[in-house]
Specification:
97 residues, 4-stranded mixed sheet, globular, binds zinc ion
């Protein structure tokens, strides 16, 4: 792991997404929030913010993501590690006072 050598903002999320979802038909855009459509074939759209990803998810729910949409759509935060910790801060942390 050489993650610490990377600077926030220059991470190539598209490339990372390809290493994570090798079977994807296509992966479009860039950003840590991946909108996955598991319908028919796997397609992935990357977004800079979770809000954009949610908006896109709502759109493809209405319109369908492709010819055979099963409404099997999922947002994955690629910054989120398996242990639940954020790789980098996405949103300002709300302090529990
Ligand atoms: Zn779909």
């Amino acid at each position: 792991m050489n993650e610490s050598a990377q600077v926030v903002g220059v991470i190539d999320w598209n490339r990372r997404a390809w290493t994570r979802w090798r079977r994807a038909r296509w992966i479009d855009g860039n950003g840590p929030f991946a909108l996955l459509a598991h319908c028919d074939v796997l397609t992935v759209t990357l977004h800079a913010t979770v809000e954009e990803a949610e908006k896109d998810k709502a759109t493809i729910k209405r319109t369908g993501c492709g010819a055979r949409c099963l409404n099997s759509h999922e947002i994955v935060n690629m910054r989120r590690r398996k242990n639940g910790a954020e790789e980098e801060t996405v949103h300002p942390i709300a302090l529990d006072l």
